[in-house]
Amino acid sequence: MHICKRCARMPKEQREGIECRDEIFNYMRQSHISDKNVSRLRELAASPQEKVAELAGIVLEVAAITPYKKRRIRELAGRNRDLLHKLDATGLILAHGS
Predict the structure, then answer these.
(1) Is residue 84 over pLDDT 70?
(2) Torsion angle of alpha carbons 56, 59, 64, 68, nearest 10°?
(3) What is the pTM for the complete model shown?
């Protein structure tokens, strides 16, 4: 992966945190959150970075309820409204639409 000069100057932990958050948001964009993705999300949920662990935990919950993207939001609205609010609060719901 190419890293620009500005990002190369960042501390490694900060840069890795940004990359992990991007990875988590990309899982929400996928049409299917696979078992391989779920195992990676479990690793990210154990991250020492609090925000990364929180986002990964939320996406793990989504994958357990609706691993396929089609009608994901509608099913969450009917089954688990609290999780839908978490998606909204963290911005993950915006990643779903793209």
Answers:
(1) yes
(2) -140
(3) 0.89
